[in-house]
Each structure stands twice: as C-alpha cells, then as structure tokens.
Amino acid sequence: MERNIIKIGLIGLGTVGSGVFKCLQGTDIKVVKAAVRDVSKPRNIENLDQSILTQDPYEIVNDPEIQIVAELIGGINPAFDLIKTAIKNGKHIVTANKELLAKHGEELFNLAEEHNRVILYEAAIAGGIPIIMPVKTILAGNKINKIEAILNGTTNYILTKMDMQGASYDDVLKEAQTLGYAEADPTGDVEGFDAAYKITTLATIAFGKRVKIENVYREGITKIKAKDMKAANELGYKIKLIASAYMNEEGKADVRVHPMLVSKKSTLAHIDYVTNAVSLSGHPVGDITLSGPGAGEFPTASSVIGDILAIASEINTTDYLLPMMRCHHGENAQMIDIADTCNKYYISINAKNNKGVIGKIGTICAENNISLASIMQKCVSEDNTADITVITELCLEKNLQNAIKLIEQDGNKVESLIRVQERGSNGFTR
User: Fold this and answer.
1) CA 126 to chain centre
2) pLDDT tens digits, residue range 155-172?
C-alpha cells in the first residue's frame, strides 16, 4: 500500500521546533522546509538536511506542496501575517503562540473558517498538558464555570524558591536567569502577561464566549516579599500566581491573573517549581485537575505533534476537518470589572506604633463595610513602626481599595495586598 506522506513546514527551529522535528523523523509526516534566523547555526538534530532550511518564512507559507504549517516563533510580527498568508494559501495551522491567539484569535479563526482550514493550538496554553482538546471533545457536554490554574513555570519556580529558601524576589530571579528558567528581560512572565494570554484563550474555550484580553485583570509577582511567604505559611497558605476565570449565574465572566494565597489543602498549593496545572469545575464532571510540564523541548513538542497528527489523520478523508476543534464563538463574554468583585484579602501594613493604631485600622475597615477575620501586630522596629497583618472576610474590591487610601493617609504604608483563595457570590475571592 502506498504511503500517504503529509508535507509540513516549520516556522522556527528553536527549542520546541527542534523537538517537533526529532519526533517526526521516520514518520509519514515529512518536514520539507524549516524557517530559521541563521541557516549556518549548528543544531542538535541528527541527520538534518541543511537544504530544507531557509531564512525566508514566506517560502513556507507560499509553498503549494506544504499542507500544514507549524508556527513556533511566538510574538505578533511576523507570525500574524505569516499565518494569515498560509491560511489564504489553503494550509492548516498548528501554533504555540499564546500572545497572538489572545490578541488576534478572533480574526484568525474567522479567516480559517472562511477558507475551510483548521487552527490547532494545544501547546499555546500549558505546554505538554493536554487541555484544549479535552475541553473541546471529552468535556464538551459539561458546563464549565470555574478555572484556576498555574500557567507560567518561571513565576512558579521563583515563588517556590522564595518559599523554600526564605529568599528575596530579586535574589531568586537572578538565580532563575542563571539557570535559564527566566529570560534576561523577564517582564512577560513576572508581570503576568504570559499567564494572561493563556487564561484569555482557555476561558474563551471553556465558557463558549469570547474573552477580550484587554478586559482581563493582570498583576505580577514583583511585589511579593519573603515575609509575605512566611506569613502565608503561618496562616495555612502558599502564595502562587493564579490565572483564574469564573462564570457567574448571570453569565458574566471574571477573568484575571494575580498572586493568591492558596490554601495548603488545595492541589494547586503543591504544584511547585516549573510544573503547571489547570483545575476545572463543571457539571456533570465536578472538579478535575491536570498537571505536568508547562514548557520544554519535548513536553511542548508533544502537544504540537498531537495537533499535527490530528490534522494529518483527516486530510484526504473529509471536506470539513475536525469540526469539534473549530471556533464556534458567536458572542463576547460580559466581563465583571475587578472593582466589582468580592474577595478575601491578606494585607501587610507598616504602621506608626501609636496608641489605637489597630483600632483605627479596624474602624476604617468597618466604615467601608469590611469585616476582619484577624488583625495582628507582630513587632516594633527601631524606627517605632510596627508590622500589622490583616486578613479580611469577603468584601468588595472597591471598598477595600478605598480603605487602603484612608489607612495610608494616616502615614501608614500598605506594603502588600494579596487576594485569598475562596469564591464569593460574584466571582473568585483571592
């Protein structure tokens, strides 16, 4: 029987691209071209035919023989135009580009449908963890209303090391950069952009309504201190950067990324170092958690290859490939502004050691309709200031922010504000 060879092109032959190439060697899926920045650069790939390398990615998207294009370079430009050109030229797309999907997914999916082509992107959300295809297929009969996830290995590594070593954020970041876990410019990771891109797409799929990246609240880990880690542990929590999404009974979505005090009883509290995890709640399945490597050559390549195989298996067998994996969003999600969410909070205050300071903080909170679960003064420093830790009950974000302004007007300094894990009536509480 004659072998049916599927020809693909790789845009990018870096860490993930190399993993994909290695895993496809000897299969019926043949990489016929690979676009790279420097064709003379040595590559850790055995039996690599140098003639397939090109510095012009448009050679791939315009090649009439290539049926599938795998875009593995990330970013918006030139990836956006390359994918659009490939679709218009009749090619199916596999991508790991979370930023592009979050910012331009709607246009790309509409274009793909117009040209009867498929875009698959399992690797864009959680590296080697299968989540997109399960949500769209196995879990398709569920109404998913809650997601809490650790979607960035760099920040999880930093927070884990801070927790284990009692070290400062700056010291652990330097270590992570030396080990290659953090980029020279770590902004995309530590300020929460990477996780925000991922939760935007994941929430869109899970809720069946398009979530706009500009409506996703984002806060990074750069303000987390070693003493916050210590306090969290004493209170029965771990601090994690959590990407979350919640759909309330009125059909409004609360989607955000920020640090959170996560109960030690929670599965996510024990996801450490570069591991990722996604917890979903829905009916009828209940609660499930998927965890595993969120990045790396072969874990991410695993997801890319799975998508390539899914497309390849249906080429030449049907005129409409993978209907369940296509985009079916007909409306935008109504979003809940962060100011209108209900949360519990951990607040660390450096206050003047004056008589009645704790009572005054309590009064300010009460006047803003904030009940306190606990308020504790630990020590007095040489400058006659005291460290005060406050844990609130559920309260509105806008009330809490107003209380903080009033507390600081008295000359006190709110050094940390971290939401605590628990769900309120209109969204997650942090």
Assistant:
1) 7
2) 999 999 999 999 999 999
Q: What is the structure's pLDDT at 2?
A: 52
Neighbours of 75 (CB within 10 A): 10
Burial class (CB in 10 A: 0-12, 13-18, 19+), 317: exposed
**Which residues make up the CATH 3.30.70.260 domain(s) of the chain?**
340-429
Specify the range with the lowest mean pLDDT, choosing from 160-169, 176-185, 304-313, 376-385.
376-385
> Could you write out the DSSP letters of every residue in 83-129?
HHHHHHTT-EEEE--HHHHHHHHHHHHHHHHHTT--EE-THHHHTTS
For the question of whether the overall pTM of this predicted structure is more than 0.85, the answer is yes
Is 240:160 a contact under the CB 8 Å cutoff? no
CATH for 340-429 is 3.30.70.260
Domain with CATH 3.40.50.720 in the chain: 6-127+297-325
Class of domain 6-127+297-325: alpha beta
Spatial distance between the Cα atoms of 4 and 112, rounded to a whole number of angstroms: 24
Q: Which residues belong to CATH 3.30.360.10 in the chain?
A: 132-293
Asked whether the bond before 284 is cis by omega within 30 degrees of 0, the reply is yes
pLDDT digits (tens, 9 = 90+) for 267-297: 999 999 999 999 999 999 999 999 999 988 9
Please list the active-site residues.
198
CATH number of 132-293: 3.30.360.10
Question: Mean pLDDT throughout 284-313?
Answer: 95
Q: E strand or H helix at 372, and its extent?
A: strand 372-380
